[in-house]
Amino acid sequence: MPRKLIQGPERRTHPLVWCIAILCTVVAIAVIIVGLVVFVGYLVIHPSVPVISVVTAHLDKLQNDLAGLFETQLTIYVKAENDNAKAHASFSDTSFVLSFEGIAIARLVADPFDVAKNGSVEFPYRVESSSIPLNPEEMLQVDLALKQDKITFDLKGSSRARWKVGLLGSVKFWCHLNCRLKFHPLTGVYVNSPCTSRLCFYKNNVNYNHLAEIIQTFIGIYVL
Predict the structure, then answer these.
(1) Where do the TM regions start and end (predicted)?
(2) In whole angstroms, what is the distance from residue 57 CA to residue 78 CA?
């Protein structure tokens, strides 16, 4: 006698699983669209890195007496540039240290400031040191610099730059400056040499709240 095939009840996917799958798909599509918007915005804005540089300088005074006391006075022109045509840049925490043979002479600082689109801001720093006692080796270095009519100062420091990327957030840069400023002591003339912070460390600061609003709006449109 042939046996009858008995089939059990058909198993169906739980509606909650379908809802989760649809939601994940919608979120994935929304993230892709937001990524495309950011990419297109980058191509439209085409941002460039703001830079800090020394454009010129002058050695106003250099004195080294027999007692080993060293005094100097310099004028240094530092410029902040923003080559972005569609976004202004802001700078903060600007601080540079001027030194000679490892001896700190002065700290150059600036309050937070903004630079307009395709603009620049220039700061003329007038630095005057107090009497700095030198050891015999450092005195020899100064004497040699005077004889060769060439003396070098070090300028090191950083400034934090920021510009906004569309509606999603901003990008922050730490612009580090590390230059050797060379002068002719007899005339005080500055020897032009590259001194810029084009290599900067950066990080993104994305506005996740706004990103969430965009995704929620897209999900609402998709569901409707």
Answers:
(1) 16-45
(2) 9
Contact of 45 with 82, CB cutoff 8 Å: no
Q: How far apart are CA 81 and CA 109, in angstroms?
A: 17
Cβ–Cβ under 8 Å, residues 171 and 117? no
Q: 3-class SS at 100? A: strand
Instruction: Report pTM.
Output: 0.69
What phi and psi values does residue 65 have, to the nearest 5 degrees? -90, 175
Contacts of 169 (CB under 8 A, 6+ apart): 204, 205, 206, 207, 210
Q: Quick: pLDDT tens for 113-135.
A: 999 888 999 999 999 888 888 88
Q: How confident is the model at residue 77 (pLDDT cuts 50, 70, 90)?
A: very high
More confident residue, 34 or 3: 34
Residue 209 to residue 224: CA distance in whole angstroms: 23
